[in-house]
Amino acid sequence: MRADLALSIVVMLTGAVALAILPQQIAGYGYDSISDMRSPVVFPAVSAALLMLLGAVLGLGTLARGAATAAGGEGTRPGIRTAAVFVIIVGYVAAVPWIGLPVASFITFLLMSLAFGYRRPLPMVLVAVGTIALVLYLFGHLLLIVFPVPKVTLW
């Protein structure tokens, strides 16, 4: 139970830090441009806010379930999982400006799956690719949100 509460706090703090550093990460855009759906600030800001919201949901759900059912996976040391999730999320936030949203999201999906004990590679890859494709289509084409251009590209 304590590990899940700690994880929820880490996730909420990560979202808060991402929101705090966002104006410095995307040059020329600040929170004043967030009302423009084409601004590259929108998606990262929504993502960081969702991190904070889902971290709160995890924490409240853990408190509601109590210690008996929120102990974590069998054979998993929750402290290591909490640290791994923190490192993965911080790495994701740091990697997006450099390698781009799709590549960073794919790597994050795979690492999070491993951190939570999923070991079947085909479903992990299919879920990662499908989710990323859906997000890129919904936000990029339907909502016309401009994603940050990565600093390092292959083309």
From TrEMBL:
Transmembrane segments: 42-64, 85-118, 124-147
Protein keywords: Membrane, Transmembrane, Transmembrane helix
UniProt-listed InterPro entries: DUF1468
One Pfam family hit: TctB
UniProt domain DUF1468: residue ranges: 8-148
Keyword Transmembrane helix: yes
Designated name of the protein: Tripartite tricarboxylate transporter TctB family protein
